[in-house]
Amino acid sequence: MAVDVSKRLGIYMRKRRKRAGWESLQELAEEMERIRKQKEEMERIRKLKDESQPDKGWSEVSVSKSTLEKYENGSRWPTPKVSALWFEAVGVNFWYRDQIRKLMNPELWQLDWGELPATPSEDNLKVLHSMGIAAAYLSDPMWKLLAANKQFLDMFPGLEVGMNVAEWMLSSNWARLNIYNWRLRTHVLVSAIANIGQDIVPDEEIEDFKNRCGGYPEFNTFWTTDPPEDQIMDTSMILRLPDGTLQRYISGTTHGYHPPVLYSGYSLTLDPDFVFD
């Protein structure tokens, strides 16, 4: 099983490398070494300023064309530090890395848990419908709405279970008019599919999504760029009420469940202290 996982990770690393424009493994290795030296220097400067700063060991990391070849052919597994350098070199935003790691390695979970559920169980649904706030379950990483409670569906007219939430955000006139920060929230959803889904989700599913959404004027920008780094962690969902006032909800996404599953929980909590400036 572990060999199969390594080979699949290697295929992913090769596809994502080429998608990022690195045809040469040697050039990618040189870029990773540049990033490693940069981290090592930053670590040295921090330690000079504060001797209590821990040594993260970047000086001990080795990167070469031959080791990258072993990762891509599945004969070796990259260490966490090498993975971090690789993600930076191929341009994968930190926001998406944990999800990519999880989705790339479901077999490692399955060794302990068996086949991971891709849809909510009856108990999951009971918990969902008992919650006093708007909540839903979304597929990873394509954002298909697997289940939602009444509060959630009432909040977003026209959104129904089974729909792709990112596609609905692009196509819904209601969403465009009534979600005040519609552009950021939609950009986050589409960019996540581009960053996490490509080379993990079957190519035909990705192409189908792009074909359905490609006609919307904002789609190409959302697909090819990441949201601004100072906004990507913003949890605000700001809705415009019928009287024109704005209401802020704090969005929360839960990726970790026990036992593990292949979908996410999503919730919206009203912010009673919100005042729009």
Explain what you see:
52% of the residues lie in helices and 12% in strands. The chain is α+β, with helices and mostly antiparallel strands. The protein has a 5-stranded antiparallel beta sheet. The mean pLDDT is 89.
Briefly say what this structure is:
Helix content is 52%, strand content 12%. By secondary structure, the protein is an alpha+beta fold.
Relative helix content: 40-55%
Q: What structural class results from the helix and strand content? A: alpha+beta
Distinct helical segment count: 13
What topology, given as strand order, has the largest sheet?
Answer: 2-1-5-4-3
Total E-strand runs: 5
**Average residue-wise pLDDT:** 89
Query: What is the global morphology?
Result: globular
> Radius of gyration, rounded?
21 Å
Oligomer: single chain
Largest sheet: 5 strands, antiparallel
Uncertain stretches of 5 or more adjacent residues: none
> How much of the residues is beta strand, in percent?
5-15%
SSE series: HHHHHHHEEHHHHHHEEE
Measure the end-to-end span. Answer: 55 Å
Provide key terms for this protein.
277 residues, alpha+beta, 5-stranded antiparallel sheet, 13 helices
How is the topology of this model organized?
Layout: H1 2-19, H2 25-49, H3 65-73, H4 80-90, H5 94-104, H6 106-113, H7 122-130, E1 134-139, E2 145-148, H8 150-155, H9 165-171, H10 173-178, H11 182-197, H12 203-213, H13 219-224, E3 236-240, E4 246-254, E5 263-270
Antiparallel strand pairs: 1-2, 1-5, 3-4, 4-5
Helix pairs in contact: 1-3, 2-4, 5-11, 9-11
